[in-house]
């Protein structure tokens, strides 16, 4: 089960200015809040959740930067020439790491991440999840988001297009469930999505 | 690319003023209130979502606005786009006490799915179980299988410990086993290209294009799919979680003590034929169907898929199938007999296919779980896994993580086969050497189980040489990979000389030792390799590895000291001294390592003080051969301090006066050398800590062998003069000179009263008792202050 999905900015390695910003996050279900909801308990809980997501984003960013440095790749992947080219997902850096219990989530969790151009995508999973499936789902989500949100067009942004992101997640990652979708299923779902939500 | 635009938008969203937010809310109120689902509402909701999600602090929204959002979720006419946004906004605000949403009023499954996503995000246990009950009711009812069920079924994995889930288990079993084997028909969209006579859809196909031979699974394809086929996919996707946590407990897992007996007894009783399923209770029935499904997946995964994405899915399905089979066998040992033969064949197939290496891990884990009962040699399987996989696949980041996770999680299962894992530590370290940032914490947790008395020395050598291993792995990749493939190594670092050296037969032995797969029981001095690999020391990957080594050393030593006996501790201490100046020269690596090695050396001496006396000869050699402190003098400081502390009869009766004298002379000569020599570019100025520790140690030794006192006093006076003189100014800073002066004075004062000196500088073991410090007659600070006062008074009485 996926606990959270997030999209965040990826700065080039050794860039000091700016911050890692979470552009979109979706938490499926929640860790249990303590029973007594004090007057500010709910707000504190929300603050905690946002901080947890930000902590994951920062860790993913540093892991990605370290991996890029180790591979000797250029700092930021060059933008593809035309927006019709498919996104080079199979060469995109990806990795996984474990989050210990309490740091920052209550339960131990695994994070699978993917860095495409200057966006980072991450899935926060339960500790013993099928990582092969998680990786392929993450690549699929990244491809769908790039395609349906036209992220390669200059000036594109995904901050004001949350409805499309939600639509994609509702079909391909419903309630955080990783799905075993073969290619034809994916095409079928995509057609359904494009038909229901014309661009 | 995205940062600039995103930054300004996020800032706007965060800094939105209350009036603007109020205006946005009233716009939404107006639009939703009259059920205007047009593009204005979409735009407004998008902005609202951004405003709510952009900040980690809560935003106060108007009550009526929130109520309208909730109402839109339950409204039958609201389009999906807007409903999703409303749900997203409500979810972003959770946990929220002003939520009045319940699932009781929702009619259809799709809306229930949306409402459930909001309610589950509240983090309230009672809400979660209510949602679960509602969803269960809808899923178990005999409603026709519309698309809404697809969206609702995954909710069940989020609600655990439900009761009375037998009906859903039965439905899951039906969806898994009895989904239609005919393709679905295309939705007639009309238009120019629709055929006048709809063609009858044919049967589903396998991933290699052949017609399906058996029931429908996730690896069956077709042009279009029916609803029950969709539910088949979803049911399998949540199967493992459902078997583990859902359902009414199922058969309770027997105790681990009885389990192996139970397993072996059922093996002999059961035949290979499967039980007629409709006679079984629901949980057992579901398990039976799950078993058949997994067997079919294993068979389907051997086909050659036509599309690349499908072959990736085949591997994922294989992993999942094995994991589910593992769960089934744990819950009901009667499955074991049928599973073992299937998995043994699978294991043989996977061993020959390098593309499927990731699927080997769950198979190995299965055999570790159940190997005893199934009379399968789990040791051979683990052996093969640990020998082949790391050496060939160390460069794949997610596989590395999975492998190490497998080792960590399977530790309790290894049992008496743990020696296999321990002996393979050189191979395991390859993962760490190649990608250290994500794996360092994993190895820190894994090290205590990998270390044992037999391999500790070899492991320490390898840990100290870990950056060297990284460089060697880089060369191995460069020399073995085909020119056309994309390089896995750092292409920006050119090292032609290194590559030649790698292929040079003269160094073959050393490289092979470094890149060995198993613990060899011998150690080789790899200093020649350090020089050869120097050009690669600037590599980012090597630098990252070098940063991880100090952390691993701490973990190693805290593990080793748990069980090491005296001999091993001595061995390790000497190893530290020996290796402290034969380290791979990565920038800053040596300095960091010296700090860690020196503190570990002291820790070892503290655990076994008599090692100073036992290894006196080697320590003497070390002190004599240094020729000056290097890199901050940490090693020297520790060694000298240890000598001062522990070279006495109270720690080891074998300490002789000659030993004390020999050390004294060596240290005196060293102190003379470091203070007399002028600093140059090659030999930086000696740090004051080294000087003070040398002086203190000399004084300690003198307090044990009183003949030396005059020599020391003379030396200390000379040091005082030196520190006070203006010539010392440029060599050491003013503070450093003052520190040396203060220490020299204190020591001189102490030596004027030799018995007190002995008490202070060579205390007996009881000094660690608190009584020593509380008792006014024996307290050390009191004694020292008394001495100082007496001496100063004496000095004041003397002229000059």
TrEMBL record, chain A:
One biological process term in Gene Ontology: endosomal transport
Domain of life: Eukaryota
A Pfam family the protein falls into: AP-5_subunit_s1
GO cellular component assignments: AP-type membrane coat adaptor complex; cytosol; late endosome; lysosome; nucleoplasm
Transmembrane segments: none
Protein name: Adaptor related protein complex 5 subunit sigma 1
UniProtKB/TrEMBL annotation, chain B:
Entry-linked InterPro entries: AP5Z1 (IPR028222), AP5Z1_ARM (IPR055450), ARM-like (IPR011989), TPR_AP5Z1_C (IPR056856), TPR_AP5Z1_N (IPR056857)
Protein name: Adaptor related protein complex 5 subunit zeta 1
Record PANTHER family: AP-5 COMPLEX SUBUNIT ZETA-1
Coiled-coil zones: none
Source superkingdom: Eukaryota
One annotated Gene Ontology cellular component of this protein: AP-5 adaptor complex
A GO BP entry: axon development
Gene name per UniProt: AP5Z1
Species per Swiss-Prot/TrEMBL record: Catagonus wagneri (Chacoan peccary)
Residue span(s) of domain AP-5 complex subunit zeta-1 C-terminal TPR: 442-790
Domain AP-5 complex subunit zeta-1 ARM repeats, chain residue ranges per copy: 313-430
Record-linked Gene3D superfamilies: Leucine-rich Repeat Variant
Domain AP-5 complex subunit zeta-1 N-terminal TPR, first and last residues per copy: 1-272
Pfam families associated with the record: SPG48, TPR_AP5Z1, TPR_AP5Z1_C
């Amino acid at each position: 089960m996926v606990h959270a999905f997030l999209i965040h900015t990826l700065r080039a390695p050794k860039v000091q200015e700016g911050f890692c910003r979470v552009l979109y996050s979706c938490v499926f279900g929640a860790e249990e809040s303590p029973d007594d909801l004090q007057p500010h308990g709910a707000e504190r809980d929300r603050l905690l959740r946002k901080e947890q997501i930000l902590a994951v984003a920062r860790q993913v960013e540093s892991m990605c930067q370290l991996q890029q440095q180790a591979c000797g790749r250029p700092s930021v992947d060059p933008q593809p020439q035309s927006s019709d080219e498919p996104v080079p997902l199979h060469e995109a850096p990806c990795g996984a790491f474990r989050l210990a219990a309490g740091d920052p989530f209550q339960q131990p969790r695994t994070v699978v991440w993917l860095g495409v151009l200057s966006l980072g995508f991450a899935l926060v999973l339960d500790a013993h999840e099928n990582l092969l499936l998680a990786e392929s789902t993450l690549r699929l989500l990244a491809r769908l988001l790039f395609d349906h949100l036209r992220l390669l067009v200059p000036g594109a942004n995904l901050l004001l297009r949350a409805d499309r992101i939600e639509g994609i997640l509702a079909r391909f990652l419903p309630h955080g469930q990783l799905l075993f979708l073969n290619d034809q299923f994916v095409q079928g779902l995509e057609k359904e999505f494009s038909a229901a939500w014309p661009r | 690319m995205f940062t600039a635009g995103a930054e300004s938008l996020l800032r706007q969203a965060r800094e939105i003023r209350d009036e603007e937010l109020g205006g946005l809310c009233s716009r939404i109120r107006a639009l939703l209130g009259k059920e205007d689902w047009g593009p204005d509402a979409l735009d407004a909701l998008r902005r609202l979502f951004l405003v709510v999600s952009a900040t980690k602090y809560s935003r106060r929204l108007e009550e009526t606005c929130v109520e309208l959002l909730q109402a839109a979720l339950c409204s039958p006419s609201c389009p999906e786009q807007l409903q999703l946004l409303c749900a997203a906004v409500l979810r972003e605000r959770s946990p929220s006490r002003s939520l009045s949403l319940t699932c009781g009023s929702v009619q259809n499954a799709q809306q229930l799915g949306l409402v459930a996503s909001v309610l589950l995000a509240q983090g309230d246990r009672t809400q979660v179980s209510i949602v679960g009950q509602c969803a269960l009711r809808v899923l178990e009812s005999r409603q026709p299988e519309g698309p809404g069920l697809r969206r609702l079924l995954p909710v069940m994995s989020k609600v655990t410990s439900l009761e009375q889930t037998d009906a859903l288990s039965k439905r899951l079993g039906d969806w898994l086993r009895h989904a239609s084997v005919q393709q679905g028909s295309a939705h007639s969209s009309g238009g120019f290209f629709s055929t006048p006579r709809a063609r009858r859809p044919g049967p589903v196909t396998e991933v290699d294009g052949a017609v399906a031979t058996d029931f429908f699974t996730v690896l069956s394809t077709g042009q279009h799919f029916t609803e029950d086929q969709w539910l088949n996919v979803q049911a399998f996707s949540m199967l493992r979680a459902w078997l583990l946590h859902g359902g009414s407990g199922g058969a309770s897992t027997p105790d681990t003590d009885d389990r192996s007996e139970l397993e072996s007894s059922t093996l002999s009783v059961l035949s290979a034929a499967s039980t007629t399923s409709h006679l079984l209770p629901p949980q057992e029935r579901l398990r039976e169907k799950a078993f058949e499904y997994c067997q079919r997946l294993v068979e389907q995964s051997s086909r050659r898929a036509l599309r690349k994405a499908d072959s990736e899915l085949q591997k994922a399905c294989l992993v999942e199938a094995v994991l589910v089979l593992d769960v089934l066998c744990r819950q009901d040992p009667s499955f074991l007999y049928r599973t073992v033969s299937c998995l043994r064949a699978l294991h043989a197939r996977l061993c020959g296919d390098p593309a499927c290496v990731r699927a080997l891990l769950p198979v190995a884990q299965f055999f570790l779980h159940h190997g005893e009962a199934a009379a399968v040699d789990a040791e051979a399987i683990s052996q093969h896994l640990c020998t082949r996989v790391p050496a060939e696949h160390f460069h794949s980041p997610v596989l590395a993580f999975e492998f190490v996770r497998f080792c960590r999680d399977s530790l309790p299962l290894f049992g008496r086969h743990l020696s296999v894992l321990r002996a393979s530590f050189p191979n395991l370290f390859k993962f760490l050497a190649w990608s250290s940032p994500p794996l360092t914490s994993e190895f820190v947790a894994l090290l205590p189980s990998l270390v044992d008395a037999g391999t500790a020395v070899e492991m320490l050598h390898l840990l100290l040489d870990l950056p060297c291993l990284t460089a060697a792995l880089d060369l191995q990749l460069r020399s073995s990979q085909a020119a056309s493939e994309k390089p896995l190594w750092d292409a920006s670092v050119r090292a032609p000389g290194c590559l030649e050296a790698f292929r040079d037969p003269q160094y073959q032995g050393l490289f092979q030792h470094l890149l060995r797969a198993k613990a060899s029981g011998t150690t080789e001095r790899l200093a020649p390799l350090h020089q050869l690999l120097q050009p690669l020391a600037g590599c980012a990957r090597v630098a990252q590895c070098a940063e991880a080594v100090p952390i691993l050393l701490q973990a190693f030593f805290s593990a080793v000291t748990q069980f090491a006996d005296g001999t091993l501790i001595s061995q390790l201490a000497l190893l530290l001294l020996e290796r402290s100046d034969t380290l791979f020269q990565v920038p800053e690596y040596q300095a960091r390592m010296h700090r860690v090695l020196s503190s570990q050396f002291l820790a070892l001496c503290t655990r076994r003080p008599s090692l100073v006396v036992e290894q006196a000869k080697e320590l003497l050699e070390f002190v004599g051969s240094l020729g000056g402190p290097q890199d901050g003098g940490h090693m020297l400081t520790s060694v000298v301090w240890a000598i001062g502390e522990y070279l006495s009869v109270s720690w080891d009766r074998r300490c002789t006066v000659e030993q004390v004298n020999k050390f004294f002379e060596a240290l005196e000569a060293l102190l003379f050398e470091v203070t007399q020599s002028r600093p140059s570019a090659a030999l930086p100025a000696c740090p004051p800590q080294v000087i003070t520790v040398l002086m203190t140690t000399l004084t300690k030794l003198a307090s044990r062998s009183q003949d030396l006192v005059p020599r020391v006093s003379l030396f200390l006076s000379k040091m005082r003069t030196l520190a006070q003189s203006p010539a010392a100014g440029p060599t050491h800073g003013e503070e450093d000179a003052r520190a040396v002066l203060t220490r020299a004075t204190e020591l001189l004062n102490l030596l004027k009263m030799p018995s007190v000196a002995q008490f202070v500088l060579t205390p007996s073991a009881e000094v660690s008792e608190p009584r020593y410090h509380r008792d006014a007659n024996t307290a050390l600070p009191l004694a020292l202050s008394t001495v100082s006062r007496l001496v100063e008074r004496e000095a004041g009485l003397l002229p000059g």
